[in-house]
Amino acid sequence: MAKSILAHDNGRVGRSASARTRETGLKIVMTIVFLGVGLLMVLPFLWMLSASFKNAADIFRYPVQWIPEKWDWYNYRKVWTEGVTFGVFYWNSIKITFLQVVGTLVTSSLAGFAFAKLRFRFKELIFLVYLSTMIIPSQVLFVPRFIMFDQMGLVNNHLGIILPGMFTVLGTFLMRQFFSSLPNELLEAAKVDGAGYWRMYWQISLPLTKPALVTLLILAFTWHWNEYENPLILLRDRDLFTIPIGLTSYMDENGTNYPLIMAASCSALAPLILIVSICQRWFVEGIASTGLKG
Amino acid sequence: MKWTEKSKENLAGYLFILPNVLGFAFFILLPLLFSLFLVFTEWDYLKGIGGITFTGFANIERALQDEMIYKSLKNNLIFSVVSVPAAMLIGLLFASALNKFVYMKSLIRTLIFLPYMSSLVAIAVVWRVMYNSSEGPINAFLRSIGIDSPPGWLASPDWALPAIIIMTVWTYIGYAMVLYLAGLQGISKDLYEAADIDGASGRQRLLSITVPLLKPTSFLIMVTLVIASFQVFAQVQVMTNGGPMHSTSVLALYIYTQAFEFRDMSYGATISWVLFLVIFAVTMIQWRTQKKWQNQF
Questions:
Q1: Span B125-173, pLDDT tens digits
Q2: CB contact under 8 A, B283 and A135
Q3: Superfamily of A76-290 according to CATH
Q4: What is the count of structural domains for chain B?
Q5: Are A120 and B116 in contact (CB < 8 Å)?
Q6: What are the tens digits of pLDDT across the range A25-52?
């Protein structure tokens, strides 16, 4: 009796162990396949990286020499030291994005709090007007904004990009959703204790929405860091350019000097790729939790 | 006069939304109204404000007869109809594999996700060189596997749009995959175990559990990507600037060309409302059919 139970158990363990081995085998094969897929996905980046160290004669040699015979830093020296350098583009991009992101966090969380937790007249109407403009594509705003900014001297001026970037309907909507999820009792208790509205926002609600703020920060960063149309339309002088239009200006000027253009592309992409790789969990969660396209 | 609690809350509410409302009014609402006004004018921009004349429906009539708008619209449609389903399908396949069948999940996810996070402009610059028809690495590879006359890609009117679509799908996949991965987390493992007991094949599990339960996710991805794809601009402007022979012209690029290269502000504004109407109509159709679509599987 005891023996047969043991045998039976052994049989079960044996079966599930072999199933597990099969599963592990499948997983290893799939891992190798998908490492290949992942490699294929980043192949253009790898090609860019290797091409940026080559000279014009070698860049198109086939089969591709993924690791250059000799590392030619000439292209990078040129991109980073001659004329208006990538350092300038970087400084402009960092400055503009930083102010846009900070502005977005401030205006969105203030308004989101009020829309979620305060009662005031016309609140629903104002919010409805907000939401109804979300369907309008940004292209509709480019022409009128350019004309308005031209009249106000904001063309060829960083302010013309920073100021509109500090307000987003989407960000306000997101923050409103997050604030709405906080229990009303919390604020009522604070009110009984004599807290003013500012304290309810700053000391009580805001600390609880830290995850939401991080999400909005990441989204706003991805919206603005790669922004192309606005700077393209509004900026004229090269020393005001951000990274994307700085890069296309390189492309326009250097036509077929492909290694130089690849060094410029690499200079434009590398830091972002580094940041996304290190903080990938946050980026993935920020996009997955909101469904928003960057 | 003593402040009542209610008027205090009113005032607080207005103060909290004030910075946002000011920005909204000035940078969104006012430009929208101004843009609508522009549609009914002709503006010789070099003459300043004095160059505005009221022309009624002239811009709209011009737009209705403008072949470039139809051509751009057609390209937009092809672009969306091909790139969105392709990215969703590949994204779903990748996500279902990554969800269960691989080790080093976060590394692989990051690799697939990187193109989506990268600057579209920088990517377009790189692909433009890779697509080089005579010497680029893509055609060199195709020749090496025996295709003697590979496509002319960006230089060919037939292949330029497909070339841009391929590159765009490559960037969209990461977005679709990340959302599908999040959707898959929400599906209970019990369902799959029950399917295992019933002896369901992998394909059956995918088609009768995964796909139906991911419908809300699919709908979200579809709506977002369709809206984004109709606004396609950067990759087209960098890679072909609408050419060759207008074969890659899209509405957003046509707006840019008219308004900022030809300085025809009124007509640029008019086309931008065409783009709005198209996106609006397409989104409405998707919402309307959502119910049917949800029950179809």
A1: 999 999 998 888 999 999 999 888 899 899 999 999 999 999 999 999 9
A2: yes
A3: MetI-like (1.10.3720.10)
A4: 2
A5: no
A6: 888 998 999 999 999 999 999 999 999 9
